[in-house]
Amino acid sequence: MNPDSSFTAYGFAAANAIIEFFIAHPVGDSTRPADPAGYGEAYSFIGAETSDISGKFIFDIAKESGQFSSITMTATDENGNTSEFSDNHLLIAAPLIIVGYADTPDLINLKVTDPDGDYIGKDAGGVLGQTLFPATYDEIVNDSITITHPKQGEYLIDVISEARATAMRAEYALGIRIDGTNEAIMTANTPVPEPGETDSYNYNVEEEGHFENGDANRDGEVNILDIVYLINCKYKEGPCPEPPIIGDVDDCRDPYTINILDIVYLINFKYKNGPEPCAILE
């Protein structure tokens, strides 16, 4: 990802080939899921580039194409032969950042395991373990883990208490974002687990990396349509937010339930200068 939120694709094909780029799976469109085989099909045309005499090509993809969309491409050589669609590539920015907020410092530790089983994190005694690289653990203000090049797939996030946390009746919140997106609050005002126990959360980079708390219909904005969406969910048997936490805006506390308090909370946020959805700690 480039500083202006655009993307650059580069690679090699036949000399002087025409490389055509397509959106294969547009972000947030559940009616157009990615091909399970991981190849194509084309949803919309982005643009084209011609490879040089060595076969190298470089193509800039505008940010409007959508972070978390998948792209695919074809190559047509000088004789007019066109390849099949390439495998899909997810437009994803780095890094992935997970932050644990405790109402008293140094009460929780984090551990994150990536889709391949590699991990970085601290145990209850504060000892750092790491097989996931490049990634860093920071605890200057809040405990946070930064994964420089996140992979597509499901991450396991463990919240581990230090021994003194339970006696203090502490609470925590968990925020996660991929740079270039708003922070998503996974949980808030949650009691720190008992010593020897762990709270675990699953986070899918492709499916959930772009959600925003309060964006109930997942159209990329928090507005009156989300309020209507919650009303329809609660009172008119309409579809409900997925994942549910994006609609449980008043506290983001598991179990995530949609009720009149969430609807009023979102109205106050949009029209009465109320607090943002999922205020981290009360």
Describe this structure in words.
The chain starts with 6 loop residues before the first strand and ends in an 11-residue tail after the last helix. Strands 11-12-7-14-15 form a five-stranded antiparallel sheet, with no helix packed on it. The protein is flat. The chain has 282 residues and is mainly beta. It is built from three helices and 16 strands. Helix 2 (224-235) runs antiparallel to helix 3.
Averaged pLDDT: 82
| Number of strand elements | 16
Please state the overall shape, judged from the principal axes of the Cα atoms: flat
Q: Kindly, what is the distance between the CA atoms of the first and last residues, rounded to a whole number of angstroms? A: 35 Å
Order of helices and strands: EEEEEEEEEEEEEEEEHHH
Helix content: under 10%
Individual helix count:
3
Which structural category fits the helices and strands?
A: mainly beta
The unreliable regions are none
What is the total domain count? 3
Rg, Cα atoms, Å? 22 Å
Largest sheet: 5 strands, antiparallel
Strand content: 25-35%
Order of strands, main sheet, comes to 11-12-7-14-15
Quick overview of this protein structure:
With 282 residues, this protein is mostly beta strands.
Topology:
Elements: E1 7-12, E2 18-25, E3 44-50, E4 56-61, E5 70-76, E6 89-90, E7 96-102, E8 108-113, E9 119-122, E10 128-130, E11 135-138, E12 143-147, E13 154-161, E14 171-178, E15 184-191, E16 198-204, H1 205-208, H2 224-235, H3 260-271
Antiparallel strand pairs: 1-4, 2-3, 2-5, 5-6, 7-12, 7-14, 8-9, 8-13, 9-10, 11-12, 13-16, 14-15
